Model the fold of this input.
Amino acid sequence: MRLEADGMLGAILASESLGLTDTMINGAGGCRSRSQIVMHDAIPSYYPENQSCCRSKYFSQQSRLPCTYLNNEDIVFGTAEKVSRGIESVASITGRRALLLDTLGASLLCTDYSGLTGNAETDPIQIQGDLSAMSMAEGYDVTVRTLLSSVDIEDGDDGSVNVLGYGLMDFGWEAGEKQLRSILESMGLRVNCMMGCLPKKEEILSCGKASLNIMIHPEFCRQTAEMLKERFGTDYLRLSMGAPVGYQSVRSFIREVASATGKDPTLALSMVDKDAEEVHRHLMNYERIPVSLHAKGFVIKAESSIVYPLMRWMMETFGMVPRHIIPLDDEYGQEIRDYLAEHGFQQALEGCEGEIEAVFSDGMDALKGSMAVSTTGYVEIRPPRSGYMDLMDRTIVGISGCRYVLDAMMNGITRFRCGQPTEVMYRPGYEEE
Done:
């Protein structure tokens, strides 16, 4: 039984992030409403509605996610006419092709495409495979690959880089996009396309000119990277430490990108080191808090490209003990298993007993946990978000991502402390005579 978001949601996020097509849901109105809520949360900035959408009942006065609104009659009479009319109606408003996505109910009961014309220019794009049987990452990846395969992309090599596998599915993706661009540009690189961050159409169509595709979350973009490699010969980089989460992983990200592109990482690394030193001084002013984390437990539930670097950061920097490690995919599964086994914590993959000081999870689990009477700190690291809006540019990637994670963890642990050392040797730099 799948308890996490499935490939249908991944496909919707992928299509809406690229903006090459209209994402048309072939299903009941409730499926569209749920997806609308998710998209409203995933795209926090306001974009005015296209007033022309009022001329089509398939849009129902909202610009995103037109829907066929299947009902009981369609189970009996089929959906061929409704689908074909819907495609024509939507195209008459936007002038774009549609990506037609079947809900689980529609695919099981009443999917009928016999009314389509067979014209590749007007018929909708369809995803091969059952989205409901895929993970969100798999659905996202196959959709991006399919959509990019349907358009003419320019070839060449202009020395730029593309960033794949990062976007609307990430916590604080707008702030994260700024962080990743800033780091890459400090190395003298030009970022052509951030594929999942509402790129401009011309950026997408020129993605074949890049000299390197950087995979932030490979589980969300491996098929896409391989397709671009096959079509344009563009190399892709799988980061050895996962996504740039935590100072160690950010440094590794910089060094690996520099090695792959021949750029100088000195300035970017100095930015990371300077920020890490400033944060260290803050922590030392409250040294009882970071020191008290030693041998305390933590839990992480997220994509494996987040779990791996975050797990290493907590263990190597603070000496914390993994109580339960829950990767949602197996992209970095081997690295996670090997690292835990090397340090004698392989049982953490199944969960083990012990005090838990920090939990890293999605926003709703973090909100639920923080409302309980507990000293445990809960850190939101992935959607769905716990709040309505974010005006503080919170993200988990890059330099500011390091600060957010530490700030949320340190301030989230509610154990009482007087703030003063009980023994003089707790003070940094103290030497006993």
